Amino acid sequence: MKEKLITNIGALFSAVLASMCCIGPLILAGFGLGGVGMWKRFEEYRPVFMAVTILLIGTAFYFTYRKPKVVCEDPCCTPKSNRFNKVMLWVVTIFAAGFMAFPYFSSAFVSGARDSSNISSKTSVEMVIKVEGMTCSGCEAHIEKAARSVPGVINAKADYKNKEARIAWETTPDKASIQELIKAIADAGYKASLPK
Fold it and tell me: Residue 2, class by beta-carbon neighbours within 10 Å (0-12 exposed, 13-18 middle, 19+ buried)?
């Protein structure tokens, strides 16, 4: 019983750590704080945390579903029910899977609607900037939100695969506006630069 509880808690804890790069900013935002970049450091360890989670859940399944040793030879002796442990194991497994998958659907939790349409219009000017440090759709949403906070920006569309963000401005931006945009993205925890 004790080793099952420990493996369940360990699996859930490592699953939370595997998605901390996306959960951390949401927790801080709930308290009205910033610091997205601080949590980004957990992303590089995500595969390790995911492997530990899977290993611990596998161990928990082994302990829960293995055939118990016969303690007594008496035919009246019945093994204890393992139903509670099985239910808890499946609950932990579902939560762990949700936490491990969280970086892939976390953009739905970042405030500000994401517009997937083409961001340019006849009255706007579009520019592409390079952004380093994006690893998932949650990162895209953070960058888009940071870019939209800059005066003059109409819309923003980040792409973590291409490591870039397309920014639509009301008018042609001046150097100060571009520097403000780069600073806003840096404050969100990412490195932005103009393409060469």
Answer: exposed
pTM here is: 0.54
140-176 burial string, b = 16+ CB within 10 Å, else e?
bbbbbbbbeebebbbbbbbebeeebbbbbbeeebeee
Q: Are 177 and 152 in contact (CB under 8 A)?
A: yes
Query: Is the predicted pLDDT of residue 97 greater than 80, yes or no?
Result: yes
Residue pLDDT, tens place only, 107-154: 666 554 444 444 545 557 888 999 888 877 777 888 888 888 899 899
CA distance 14 to 101: 13
Output the six-digit token pair for 133: 């440090």
- Residue 127 is inside which H or E element, if any? strand 125-132
Dihedral over Cα of 82, 83, 88, 91: its sign: positive
Provide the β-strand partners of residue 178.
none
